[in-house]
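Hello again, I could really use a second opinion on something today. I've been staring at a protein lately and its backbone has me curious. Can you walk me through what the tokens say about the fold? Take your time with it, there's no hurry, and the full record follows here:
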Amino acid sequence: MKKTNLFIVATLFGMIIFPLWWVTGMEPAAGTEWFSGSDSQAQDMILALAPDYLTWFEPLWKPASGEIESLLFALQAALGAGFIGYWFGVSVTRHELRQSQPARLPDPIQSRVDC
């Protein structure tokens, strides 16, 4: 293995293992979860700052559990990543096809017909 590849693998391994090692033995703050979302943290902050705050609307449907909610979020992220990947692939292919075709001058007769 090349030194650069070994360095990249070691760095990635460290980036994955170090946070897990850092968290081991720690406890979350009282009344919180390890990986609570920003929505619940914002809701707690709003209730602490303005207890009489009224929500603007209620969700039409609430998932049965946190696992279902996480699944839906993961599916949404996967679909978004797939769409972005498809768009990127199409854009690169179009660019390559345009670069491979020889440059053509406009046909003077055809340009008169289009007017």
Notes: Residues 23 and 40 are 21 Å apart (CA to CA). Residues 66-100 form the longest helix (35 residues). The mean pLDDT is 83.
